[in-house]
Design a protein that fits this description.
Number of domains: 2
Number of strands: 7
Order of helices and strands: HEEEHHHHEHEHEE
Largest sheet: 5 strands, mixed
CATH class of the largest domain: Mainly Alpha
Strand content: 5-15%
Structural class: alpha/beta
Oligomer: single chain
Helix content: 40-55%
Strand order of the largest sheet: 1-4-7-5-6
CATH architecture of the largest domain: Up-down Bundle
Radius of gyration: 32 Å
Length: 387
């Protein structure tokens, strides 16, 4: 069936033209059984110790011992020459030693932050895994134990966010170290031009210049590591916040959905400008297009969320940049008053479906909302099409 009828027909033919309500949206096998069993307790807290940063120790000057602390090789001590240039060398040497000690302290802070982030991430994933396991096995809608676990997961994610803030603050401090290293290097090079220097002064200046260069390399590496960590952790926290929003909706419904739709590949694709379908296009949407999902609201509380999520997920896997048309379809017939009531009711159902999609992570900008009447509709329906 997934033949060569074009990408749109291939998508719709393979992506479940699902019908909810009265008859044919999904079989009972799609839905987990609900039970009154209490969810599993939160995952056991695991404390770990972060390993030392081996890459950081690759710089010539510092090394990392087993405890994760960096020891810098002391600045080369030289005998004073008694000249003005020699006094300048001594002052620069002292400043470089203080800078190296600051770098060692900042690297130790980075290891501590990384360890904290690792522990917080482990506790977060353990809690989320416990929630997903209970949802997969089946549970009651709005289970208070799952809500408590969700709150605990949110707390752990906030702690990771605090770790990112600490990294950003540390990065600013290391940037100041970089500026100081550049100043020391410039001052060392300028000292070559001091009057009254002897050959020993220039020899000491050359050694000091080399050690300052090695220190600058160390600072650059520390800055790069901080930048990489901040970018990686910021992306991670952003993705998990969207996943938590979907998980909250899953707990409310008592059924497992999956990760946020916003975390799929289409979130990084170039934004596609959306447009509302013109009035002339609305009849075409029903007459000549096969819907991805048809939800018939022929009874109260139609359970469409899980199948809707599955259908949209599959559509996005096939076309990451897909746009969607959400059409509220009301039946034709009866008096004008009955027709107005039917149209209003269909629009309300379409609004509920749109909220469900946004709760699942689909940006509202990718969904066009419209309404029309159809003689084929026996009750209020909501159709979802892929564009």
């Amino acid at each position: 069936m997934c033949g060569s009828a074009g990408p749109w027909r291939a998508l719709t033919a393979c992506a479940l033209a699902l019908t909810l309500g009265g008859c044919s949206f999904a079989s009972d096998s799609l839905w987990p059984s609900l039970s009154g069993e209490e969810p599993a307790p939160p995952a056991e807290r695991i404390d770990i110790t972060a390993d030392a940063d081996a890459d950081f120790a690759a710089v010539a000057a510092p090394r990392t011992d087993d405890a994760g602390a960096i020891e810098t090789i002391p600045v080369t001590d030289q005998e004073p020459t008694g000249t003005m240039a020699g006094a300048k060398v001594g002052g620069l040497r002292q400043e470089l030693g203080g800078l190296q000690e600051t770098i060692r302290r900042h690297n130790t802070q980075l290891q501590e932050i990384r360890q904290s982030a690792t522990e917080n991430s482990q506790r977060y994933y353990g809690t989320v895994a416990a929630i997903n396991t209970r949802l997969q096995m089946g549970t009651t809608p709005g289970n208070p134990v799952l809500i408590q676990q969700w709150n605990a997961a949110q707390t752990e994610l906030d702690r990771i966010g605090l770790d990112i803030t600490k990294m950003a603050s540390l990065s600013n401090q290391v940037a100041s170290d970089s500026a100081l290293a550049a100043y020391l290097l410039e001052s060392t090079r300028a000292a070559y031009g001091l009057s009254g220097a002897v050959e020993e002064d220039h020899r000491q200046l050359a050694i000091l210049e080399d050690e300052t260069n090695r220190t600058a390399v160390l600072i650059d590496r520390l800055l790069n590591e901080l930048s990489d960590d901040i970018g990686r952790q910021t992306t991670y926290v952003g993705n998990e916040r969207r996943n938590l929003a979907v998980l909250s909706n899953a707990i409310k419904n008592g059924e497992l959905f999956g990760p946020s739709l916003a975390n799929r590949a289409f979130a990084t694709a170039a934004p596609v400008a959306s447009r509302a379908p013109a009035a002339a296009d609305q009849s075409f949407a029903v007459a000549n297009r096969r819907p991805l999902v048809v939800i018939r609201f022929d009874r109260p509380d139609v359970p469409y969320q899980q199948a809707l999520y599955s259908a949209v997920s599959e559509a996005l896997e096939r076309r990451p940049d897909a746009l969607f048309d959400l059409v509220a379809v009301s039946p034709v017939g009866g008096s004008s008053g009955e027709s107005a009531v039917g149209t209003t009711q269909a629009r309300r159902y379409a609004g509920d479906v749109l909220r469900s999609l946004t709760d699942m992570g689909l940006p509202a900008s990718r969904v066009n909302l419209s309404a029309l009447s159809s003689p084929d509709a026996a009750t209020s329906e909501v159709h979802l099409y892929v564009r």
